[in-house]
Amino acid sequence: MTRKIIIDTDPGQDDAVAILLALASPELEVLGLTCVAGNVPLALTQKNARIVCELAGRRDISVFAGCDRPLAHTLVTAEHVHGKTGLNGPVLPDPTMELQDMHAVDFLIETLRSEPSGTVTLCPLGPLTNIATAFQRAPDIIERVQEIVLMGGAYFEVGNITPAAEFNIYVDPEAADIVFKSGVPIVVMSLDVTHKALVTKARNAAFRGLGNAAGIAVAQMTDFFERFDLAKYGSDGAPLHDPCVTAYLIKPELFTGRFINVEIETKSELTRGMTVADWWGVTDRAPNATFMGTIDADGFFGLLVERLARLP
Q: Are 171 and 76 in contact (CB under 8 A)?
């Protein structure tokens, strides 16, 4: 049984790996890629999404451009991590496949209305602006979403863009607040998980050793953006954040977590964008998200290598 998904993304090298993993996996039917401003501005995220589809040999995938700024604030981007293009590292040709005319938010609304209720999973890999905008514009689609599996937030690892906030949530906390209060079943791949999925030298050598275009490009991407994380965290390699979302859809047993209450801080100057996760159950707030805490990293990288090997 294939699972229908829409990947909402702001590529980003790790977004690219998450997309490649999805396109290489027969368990997943990618209905479309919806792009949002985040790691880099929208003009680059929609271009990068098409570059990644072509790298995977999948020009049949529909790519849509969505919101170019957060709901209530000025856009914050992350070129300091991902480079000027968002996909620095490999030299990849400009895409020739077309961007769809429809706005990403309209595609989300139309698809959730036309597919059978409860059969489409949303996979946000960036700020939640597109998803929140769709929910605001068409509240009837909320109950039709099967599940949201997202990369964002942190609890024990706290923040990577401010002392308290993870980047994706920080860029648009108001959007995150709407999504987390929506009532849709949510699975959160937080920094607590993704910082345990480190691309060590041996793991990167395995990507490069595949010898195909996708494997080599992934190795070059992680070579590039690990310089930032190595300097910052002093770890053995860069965390591969976004592919955790795709891996969960294929092999959920790689992850463990807790069903807890997660609230988004939108007001405080000090902790704006923080995911306040009630991990220890110290409040009476109702649980609204499965917040992942651990990953089988060897199993995760084994899956990545096995699937990337299937691509051109």
A: yes
3-state secondary structure of 167: helix
In sequence order, the β-bridge partners of residue 28 are 3
pLDDT band of 227, cuts 50, 70, 90:
low
CB of 270 within 8 A of CB of 291?
no
Q: Is 262 in a helix, a strand, or coil?
A: strand
- pLDDT of 78 higher than 70: yes
Position 26: which residue type? P
Burial of 9 (0-12, 13-18, 19+ CB in 10 A): buried
Please report where in the chains the tokens 């937030």 appear, as a residue: 153
* The predicted structure's pLDDT at residue 226: 58
CB neighbours (10 Å) of residue 85? 16
Known catalytic residue: 80?
Answer: no
Residue 76 sits in which domain range? 3-308
d(CA 118, CA 31): 15
Identify the three-state secondary structure at position 303: helix
Angle between helices 201-209 and 213-233 (to 10 degrees): 170
Q: What CATH number did the domain enclosing 108 receive?
A: 3.90.245.10
pLDDT digits (tens, 9 = 90+) for 85-134: 889 888 899 999 999 999 999 999 999 999 999 999 999 999 999 999 99
Rounded-to-integer distance, Cα 42 and Cα 191, Å: 24
Q: Mark 57-82 as b/e (b = at least 16 C-beta within 10 Å).
A: ebeebbbbbbbebbbeeebbbbeebb
pLDDT digits (tens, 9 = 90+) for 59-70: 999 999 999 999
CA torsion, points 91, 96, 97, 103, in degrees to nearest 10? 90
Structure pTM? 0.96
Q: What's at 106, amino acid-wise?
A: D
Q: Which of 80, 82, 195, 241 is catalytic?
A: 241
Number of compact structural domains in the chain: 1
**Beta carbons of 11 and 238 less than 8 angstroms apart:** no
